[in-house]
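Response to reviewer comment R2.3. The reviewers asked that we include at least one raw input/output pair. We reproduce the pair for MAM domain containing glycosylphosphatidylinositol anchor 2 here without editing.
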Amino acid sequence: SDETCFLVLGLYSPPTVRIIHSGHACNVEEERYTERVYTIREGETLELTCLVTGHPRPQIRWTKTAGSMSDRFQDSSVFNETLHIAKILRTQGGRYYCKAENGLGSPAIKSIRVDVYYLDEPVVTVHQSIGEAKEQFYYERTVFLRCVANSNPPVRYSWHRGREVLTQGSDKGVEIYEPFFTQGETKILKLKNLRPQDYANYSCIASVRNVCGIPDRSVIFTLTNRTASPSIKLLVEDPIVVNPSQTVSLVCITTGGEPPPVLTWGSSNDSLPQRSVVNGGTLTLPAITSEEAGAYSCVASNNVGNPAKKSTTIVVRALKKGRFWITPDPYHNDDNIQIGREVKISCQVEATPPEELTFSWLKNGRALRSSERMVITQTDPDISPGTTNLDIIDLKFTDFGTYTCVAALKGGGIPEISIDVNISSTTVPPNLTVPRGKSPLVAREGDTVELECLVSGKPKPIILWSRADKEAPMPDGSMQMESYDGVLRIVNVSREMTGSYRCQTSQYNGFNVKPREAVVELIVQYPPTVEPVFMEMRQGLGRPVVMTCRVLRAHPSRVLRFEWLLSNRLLHAGAFDAQRDETEYTVRNLNRDGLGEYTCNVINEAGAGKCTFLVTGKAYPPEFYYDTYNPVWQNKPRTYSFKLQWTQMNPNAVDRIVAYRLGFRQMGLERWWVQEIPVDGPINKGELMSHNLTDLIKPESYEVRLTPITRFGEGNSTIRIVRYNAPLNSTALTNSFHCSFEDEPICMFTQDKNDDFDWTRHSAATRDTKYTPNTGPSVDRTGSKQGFYMYIETSRPRKEGDQARLVSPFFNVAPKNPYSISNPPAYCFGFFYHMYGKHIGEFHQTSKGQTSSEGPVWSLNGNQGDHWKQAKVSIHPTSSFQVVLEGIRGPGIEGDIAIDDVTLEEGECRDPPTNLSSKVLFRSSHIWLLCVTLVMTLLEGQR
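Raw output as returned:
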């Protein structure tokens, strides 16, 4: 039958998490205590899955520590259960954290260390030393062969000469050693005072001992009497000075080296230009630009000695930024030009290369030579590069005219720069004013504004703009902007640009006098910034709804008015109260006409800020309960049933939920099956609801959609996938159950609230045996000191006869014939026990929910020796049941009882142990009582 059980119980629980792995692991080690190391070969697929419990369903987030800043874990976190990295790189090793949180309690975090194994091809480098003694006929040549390979784990090296294995001491002329400063990284082969037999093929074999199936790698080096380090020659000048757009070829040749060296090119700009072409020893740079200027290096390497390197610098000719300034008589404190006084005209350009720069002067278009009254000088390039001066001493009326400064490069090919400077009776220093009405300048956010400073004088200098009231950059990001007409144009002005702007005359293109300056105030108005920008408000019909729109900031801050609208229909408008920063609208009695989108516009001179409220009677989505014990059970050979459980999010926020619409479909098929589940009475927060999905086809998965219904109509739906093998529930497999107590929360076992003390989860590595050394297990059932088990500690304050009871989760069963209990199904319950110590008391195993009165189905007492034994007992439940494991304290402290590897399987026990005396006792039950029993048990647990 499709009965629905309601359990009045707060089922919200904080998250728990554990990590399981798939993919291509070489090994997964459980190191001491909590460290887990997952070993994987570079290039394989890493797949880690986070298994979580908790209600509501926790959100999962994968993050990573370790590694450099550049190795940011895929630039973000991964927000799903499975972390999948295809073709893992060595840089992606490190510690991975899985974090689960659902807003209850602290987040649950588990981590695993991923170690990526690899072995690169080894490289042999050769170094030679030659020693001479002048007065003797003595000549020594020693060769060092060094082998290096990048690897994880550390590599081991072996040397061979031809087919002969070389070891320390095997040949007097050979030494093999590890240099102290690179312990374990390299293996050096030293050939002392070369002999004829030393000229041979040497092979270095690098090995990581086949970890992760990584094969050994080897490299061969042939040593001859001609072996020599490389030498090269550059067939170019240094530096090379060229014109832009010219094609430049650099030629590098090898002049020595055995084996023949390999040539490579590099640049001081980190990488070669994109359009460059390398052909052996020739580097070609077509149509070179100024950005491609710099140092270029040819490097030759043959792994013998040090690589040979030769460099040259390419200089690309350029002339730019021509500027001038006029300096009135420096000996008189006057800013004007006067007859009979001295005037200096200065001219400056940026030139590459600076030594090729030449200047010439013209007056009214005719060449000007240096004389006693017209002194032409070129400033020292080290002090002020690229500058020339024309000093006019004792200015006469005939000296008025146009003076032209011409800059050129000796090499040619670059257009000249000429700068005209007019000296006349109208040449006067600048004056700077802000036009009337241009300060303060008021604009709205997003406008284009023009800040203006009027500059008079002849010639007009460049105007420099900067922020006057704060150390903030200008709109283009620089600290200073130039303007040739005194206007600063700002496109798309923003509120951050409000403030004072300084305009200032530069010495360029004008008089070299004390700068003139003025300040322009810019005020940027913007519409009110309000909150909330959007809010969904869910409410039942007939109830009040209060909406509040708050102003955070605005300019001008004097807000003019507000207006409330429902779907563009004006409800209420008025002046904004200057004493308050918010406006409120109340719907006293919500009806269907009052549902919809409400807008509050708060308006000032610059525009409107908008709060939006979506008022709806929609119910919140239900929250599926994923931690159901035994959600899957068998009812027919080809079908299975699934117990679907959920709670309702915020059930009292809207009208009472009268039903749920349940839709489900087989994965991969289009057709949905839909039915309604009626709800009697109001739903409490945290109340667990159940519905049995029956006749699901094995082993298909199903998509389930659940939608709450109120008198408003349908609420928000929730979707989940139901799987036959229920992989996300470690305590509830389809036909078997296994618990080794390795993870909290101990497979949903609970401590009985009415016993005298509790069972404790422990491992031999963490248990203190100082007080009771001759009792309790020294390893878990598998022989591991790190493995966990449950045990009862009999030391004080325990006293004889005290009981500790551990209660299993509920196991759902389906009788073969649901209308008769004459042929109940059989299950085999098994566990390992350890009863060691002279004061061992009693151990009982009981089943709750059998047919007949409750009592032990298995018991044992006394010392059973320092080893684990297995117990098995067949049980025949007719309804859902629990198993109770009870330990009773004996007469002294040497009597700790432990259990491990608890199992429950379908079918009779095949090989029940012979040393057990067992009797089976039952308690009557019925399907409708299952709900009540479950309610009572869970309620007791909540007290």
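The longest helix spans residues 927-942. DSSP finds one helix and 71 strands in the chain. Further pairs are available on request from the corresponding author.
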